[in-house]
Amino acid sequence: MRIERIFEIRTMRQVYKLMAVVTVFAVLIPVATFALPFFHYGERYIRFFAIAAIPATLIPLLITPPIAFIILNLFRIQTLTIDKVDHYVRYDTLTGVLTRAYLLGKTRDALSSGGAFLMIDADHFKAINDTHGHDIGDEALKRIAEVLRKGLTTDALIGRLGGEEFGVFLPGASDTEAVAAAESLCKLMREEGKVIAGKELGLTVSIGCALHRDENTLEKTIKLADSALYHAKHSGRDRYFLAEATDTMPALILKDRMAG
Hints:
The protein is of the alpha+beta class. The chain contains 7 helices and 8 strands. A hairpin with a 6-residue loop joins strand 7 and strand 8 (about 250-255). The protein folds into 2 domains: about 5-90, no CATH class; about 100-255, Reverse transcriptase/Diguanylate cyclase domain (Alpha-Beta Plaits). Helix 5 (about 135-150) packs across helix 6 (about 175-190). The longest helix has about 45 residues, at about 45-90. A 6-stranded mixed β-sheet has the order 2-3-1-6-7-8, sandwiched between helices. A two-stranded antiparallel ribbon has the order 4-5. About 55% of the residues lie in helices and about 15% in strands. It has helices spanning about 10-40, 45-90, 100-110, 125-130, 135-150, 175-190, 220-235, and strands spanning about 115-120, 155-160, 165-170, 195, 200, 205-210, 240-245, 250-255.
């Protein structure tokens, strides 16, 4: 357990429990301080100890609980505030997947094991907003996020890059595994996107895939995936491409999946 975890307080129950512990110690310390010399000099001083123990007990008993409550409750509020800020930084508020910045950060951490980056874009999303309104568009984005979580392995890093565009990093994945994941997502989105929020949207996605290579930066891998996505979009949508990196322009291998 990290040291800072000791000071994290999230519930009132924790506040009351810690307040009780602090109060007990606040009472025992002065009582024990008075008791030691009296017991050392014998029982003839026990009456004086009893008199001294009364204020030594009552004063901390009256003062400690309210002070401890205020301080511990401030710790609780601070912890909850940090949690909210941390959640806001890490997770997209609409879809619940990772934010762009956090996705890229986590992806950089996982690059040493290799993998594949997928860029997923909703097809004809502007038409959905224009025809049905932004509230239905928001529901469509939520459905895409649900499909990504449902169709990918638990170690996949899923984030929203902006607008209707999502990014996925598959740690350690080969090109075959990346293509299989993309095909599965296209198929699942085709099924799950037929009806959203009571509207027959027939929502599909286009996907660009790029295998990360040691000699490339993350930015270059993402650019390759973006180029593959561009070709998928302009070749009819509802399909995916896998890009192979070269020193100049990426060679694009068509992994075509036509709409059913």
